[in-house]
Specification:
Layout (H helix, E strand, L loop, with lengths): L23 E2 L6 E8 L2 E7 L1 H7 L1 H6 L6 H16 L13 E4 L11 H15 L16 H13 L3 H13 L15 H14 L2 H14 L28 H8 L1
Parallel strand pairs: 1-3, 2-4
Antiparallel strand pairs: 2-3
């Protein structure tokens, strides 16, 4: 599926820095500037659609509700004013659009490049808007595990798992979600955890089976901690460092 001409090109390490008057255009008809803070050093502006985000994500539906939060009320008040003076949202300059802000969505300590978080969140927005750039989700013929795991984290955090999971399964059918052909089990623990985490979120049974087996076979340095700590993530950990739903504890006990 080729991307619309209006969608900015980018690598999986994210876009160039955007500004309120020159945002990253996810939807040319977008009626909202989404101001995203990844950390204190990186923020981005995305032009997105209020109605699309509300339909695809219960998080955004609540955030942008016309009655629940002051931010949503202000957004819809500004949109009502703009519709009186513009017949087409594409003609509205970005600086005149209402803004919603999301803060501190970087993931984990500095082991993962911030650009990877930005790349994964950008993919989330593209998927929700139905304009995923196929050319940038694959590296050497398949999606990088870190990108997929971060995308799984954002899909869960922003309550958009069903929408994103459908696209991931479509990618899988096209061969972009697969194991490295040279080995069945990735013995590097972080990569196995990323794949298992994504497999659990997106319901990829082959990945769940393969990489839960990897943890059982190779073990985990995290299991050296007190048994009561197994399955509990700290604030400086990644979502896949401690797997939820009892997976972590079950794997350690089987071993």
């Amino acid at each position: 599926m080729p991307p619309p001409a209006e969608i900015s090109n980018r690598s999986e390490l994210g876009h160039a820095m955007s500004t309120p008057d020159n945002p990253i255009v996810i939807d040319i008809q977008g009626d909202l500037l989404l101001h995203v803070h990844y950390n204190k050093d990186l923020t981005q502006y995305y032009r997105v659609s209020v109605s699309v985000l509300g339909k695809q994500s219960s998080y955004f539906s609540n955030l942008l509700d016309t009655t629940k939060f002051s931010e949503g009320i202000a957004v819809h008040s500004r949109l009502a004013s703009l519709r009186k003076s513009h017949t087409d949202m594409a003609s509205v300059p970005a600086l005149e659009l209402p803004t919603a802000t999301i803060s501190d969505i970087g993931v984990g300590p500095t082991r993962v490049h911030t650009g990877l978080c930005e790349g994964a969140f950008g993919l989330l927005l593209e998927i929700l808007h139905g304009c995923l750039q196929w050319s940038i989700v694959k590296t050497k013929g398949y999606v990088r595990p870190t990108i997929l795991a971060l995308l799984a984290h954002y899909a869960e955090a922003f309550a958009a798992i069903p929408s994103v999971s459908r696209e991931i399964h479509a990618l899988s059918e096209k061969g972009y979600i697969r194991e490295n052909a040279r080995r069945t089990v990735d013995v590097k623990e972080d990569k196995s955890r990323q794949k298992l985490y994504a497999g659990l979120i997106f319901d990829l049974p082959d990945w769940v089976q393969t990489h839960s087996a990897a943890l059982i076979i190779w073990g985990s340095k995290r299991w050296m901690k007190d048994e009561d700590d197994v399955g509990r993530a700290g604030s400086d950990e990644y979502p896949w460092d401690y797997l939820s739903g009892g997976v972590e504890g079950e794997s350690s006990h089987v071993r």
